[in-house]
Amino acid sequence: MHLTLDQVLDIADLPGTYLRTARCLEFIQPEYQDKAVKLLHDLDVEGVVVIGGDGSFQGAQALARKGIPTIGIPGTIDNDLGYTELSLGFDTAVNVCVEAVRAIRATSRSHDRASVIEVMGRNCGDIALNTALSTGSEIVIVPEMSNWSVDEIAHRLNALVDRGNQRASIIVAEGAYKTMAPFDVYEFMKDYPSGSRPVFPGSPMDAYFLSRVVEHKVKKTEVRSTVIGYTQRGSQPTARDAAFAFEAGVVAVNLLRHGESNRVVGVHNGKVFHMDIESALQIKPSFNRRMFNMVNAL
């Protein structure tokens, strides 16, 4: 796709990816990498700026090894790259979730009703944690907490209700269900009305069933569920994301102009920097357990 100046000026502030992107599992195979290299040479492409996460950066490494100058910019709303404090899309996703949770909490206040609110985060709970911190939510569930149980969540909500808080918010990352202690949704729910969704043997836990199970365990308050979903991905970028995108783009282009390759841009101590891709990928993301404990203890 050829981009003119007018097109770039028009799309600079738009959400989403104008060039369109999707995972390409075949790119792991050397023959597909060779096809990409040939295509880039045929198009006279002098360098590639790869915006993405761990998998995208591994693809960038492969291109660099085959002689294509590449620079990476972190672009994953999960914020699960350990070498950088910020990834493009994360701040926007958190702000979308914060706006949604505040609106849900306003309704919960009117009806004295608790809520389970699912946000994105397959292996990283940063969106959930930051959303909970920013909204005063009382419970947060993240993938980093292995073997958490439904009984723990019900016990916590029950204690909140006993203290007069019947409208607590439970923020759960979408990937947290896979790290929970074993729980048979069907075996528990078969003795209760399942509401608007039927339950079957093997039904997986999700936001809806979590709300139903917790409600039946607590028995003192209604519990509703909301999945915020793809609105986190397609919203107008926040000022913080837009500013980082601008600076990271300038740094990436300048690196290519000066003959640099196989490097990634990031943020450390609030400042934009760059480092070797291989070293960056070896840094594992850390989870702020102190803030997690703070949310769940109040």
Automatic annotation (TrEMBL):
<keyword id="KW-0963">Cytoplasm</keyword>
<feature type="domain" description="Phosphofructokinase">
    <location>
        <begin position="3"/>
        <end position="256"/>
    </location>
</feature>
<comment type="pathway">
    <text>Carbohydrate degradation; glycolysis; D-glyceraldehyde 3-phosphate and glycerone phosphate from D-glucose: step 3/4.</text>
</comment>
<keyword id="KW-0460">Magnesium</keyword>
<dbReference type="GO" id="GO:0005524">
    <property type="term" value="F:ATP binding"/>
</dbReference>
<dbReference type="GO" id="GO:0030388">
    <property type="term" value="P:fructose 1,6-bisphosphate metabolic process"/>
</dbReference>
<dbReference type="GO" id="GO:0006002">
    <property type="term" value="P:fructose 6-phosphate metabolic process"/>
</dbReference>
<dbReference type="GO" id="GO:0016208">
    <property type="term" value="F:AMP binding"/>
</dbReference>
<dbReference type="GO" id="GO:0061621">
    <property type="term" value="P:canonical glycolysis"/>
</dbReference>
<keyword id="KW-0067">ATP-binding</keyword>
<keyword id="KW-0808">Transferase</keyword>
<keyword id="KW-0418">Kinase</keyword>
<dbReference type="InterPro" id="IPR035966">
    <property type="entry name" value="PKF_sf"/>
</dbReference>
<dbReference type="InterPro" id="IPR012003">
    <property type="entry name" value="ATP_PFK_prok-type"/>
</dbReference>
<dbReference type="InterPro" id="IPR000023">
    <property type="entry name" value="Phosphofructokinase_dom"/>
</dbReference>
<dbReference type="Pfam" id="PF00365">
    <property type="entry name" value="PFK"/>
</dbReference>
<dbReference type="GO" id="GO:0046872">
    <property type="term" value="F:metal ion binding"/>
</dbReference>
<dbReference type="GO" id="GO:0005945">
    <property type="term" value="C:6-phosphofructokinase complex"/>
</dbReference>
<keyword id="KW-0547">Nucleotide-binding</keyword>
<dbReference type="GO" id="GO:0048029">
    <property type="term" value="F:monosaccharide binding"/>
</dbReference>
<keyword id="KW-0324">Glycolysis</keyword>
<dbReference type="GO" id="GO:0042802">
    <property type="term" value="F:identical protein binding"/>
</dbReference>
<dbReference type="InterPro" id="IPR022953">
    <property type="entry name" value="ATP_PFK"/>
</dbReference>
<dbReference type="GO" id="GO:0070095">
    <property type="term" value="F:fructose-6-phosphate binding"/>
</dbReference>
<protein>
    <recommendedName>
        <fullName>6-phosphofructokinase</fullName>
        <ecNumber>2.7.1.11</ecNumber>
    </recommendedName>
</protein>
<dbReference type="GO" id="GO:0003872">
    <property type="term" value="F:6-phosphofructokinase activity"/>
</dbReference>
<keyword id="KW-0479">Metal-binding</keyword>
